[in-house]
Specification:
This protein is of the alpha/beta class and 307 residues long. It folds into 2 domains: 60 residues, no CATH class; 238 residues, D-Maltodextrin-Binding Protein, domain 2 (3-Layer(aba) Sandwich). Helix content is 34%, strand content 27%. The protein is built from 11 helices and 14 strands. Strands 5, 6, 7, 8, 9, 10, 11, 12, 13 and 14 form a 10-stranded mixed β-sheet that branches.
């Protein structure tokens, strides 16, 4: 067992459950994990949190874990990975007694978790190819009777992440079809994957024409890391990830990144506090220097299903 992190195998042994169950817990956001290369890891602090909020039991040959709700000062955040969300999580912890419990599983899966009632907030950036509108067309399909607010967080640049100096001269989606170009993709269900596929379809480029289209990563930094170490020539992602690793970035589009609040009697006070914090001048100052983001509309309520 690692001195600093745990593998899914370690967790399975500790709780006497199957490894498959551990991966299901991670997928559902009940156990927070991160990736090192292609391997999942769990921090000791997350293990202790999970121990205190879970009950493990066995039923015949099927192992199940019932995850009990966290304390009411915990807000469960799921959806797309973003550096502003990371900063928000840290800021909330520093400034209040509330904790944001993040699970980065992609925009679409994040909305599904919100719909199922196992999350309080979803971070999303989903482009509807028909209307060319972000997020709200999907939210209108998912949520009819639920109390929902869509809160603007930021606009951010999406484009090609390439090595310093852009040695392969990638400037367009057509370049992804060149035989010498190796691409690294984001996972199915992520907003970035939605956006990429929309651009490819628009330009009549088939996935099998892109070498490496099937190579998937779960966040922007992991995608950029492939470019940094030379295992891929180009990825599609955000400027901030490229700049953090000293890579070049070719902008393609500006997209809208929003937070979706699902209000309940149990989380109303916490979500009100979270919203006030997002709208605060201090939080805006804390994220103002992160590259690749435009903060106009921060805190704007763009859509809601109740008055």
């Amino acid at each position: 067992m690692s001195e600093t992190t745990y593998t899914p195998d370690d967790i399975a042994k500790l709780f006497k459950i199957s490894k498959h169950t551990v991966y299901e817990l991670i997928k559902r956001g009940e156990l927070n994990a991160f990736k090192v290369g292609n391997k999942m890891r769990i921090n000791p602090e997350e293990l202790e949190r999970f121990k205190s909020s879970s009950q493990a039991y066995q039923s015949n040959s099927t192992n199940v874990v019932n995850s009990q709700p966290s304390l009411n000062t915990t807000v469960r955040l799921t959806g797309s990975h973003d550096f502003l969300v990371e900063q928000l999580t840290k800021y909330v912890s520093q400034q209040t007694s509330m904790q944001l419990q993040p699970t980065y599983i992609g925009s679409l899966e994040g909305l599904m978790m919100l719909y199922r009632g196992v999350a309080d907030v979803a971070a999303v950036h989903l482009l509807d190819p028909t209307s060319k509108e972000y997020n709200i067309p999907f939210i209108k399909q998912f949520f009819i009777h639920e109390r929902i607010s869509v809160i603007g967080l930021a606009s951010r640049e999406q484009g090609f992440i390439v090595a310093k100096g852009n040695p392969k001269k990638v400037t367009s989606f057509k370049d992804l079809t060149r035989k010498e170009i190796v691409f690294v993709n984001r996972q199915k269900g992520s907003g970035t994957r939605f956006l990429l596929d929309a651009f490819l379809a628009e330009q009549e480029i088939k996935p099998n024409q892109v070498k490496g289209y099937e190579n998937e990563e779960w966040n922007h930094l992991a995608t950029a890391s492939h470019i940094s170490r030379g295992s891929a020539d180009v990825g599609f992602g955000i400027r901030s990830a490229a700049e953090q690793l000293g890579l070049d970035f070719i902008p393609v589009t500006e997209e809208q990144f929003d937070l979706v609040f699902r209000w309940t009697n149990e989380n109303e006070n916490e979500l009100k506090s979270l919203y006030e914090l997002i709208c605060s001048k201090q939080f805006k100052q804390s994220i103002a220097q992160i590259p690749g983001y435009m903060l106009k509309g921060l805190g704007e309520i763009k859509y809601k299903t109740y008055s």
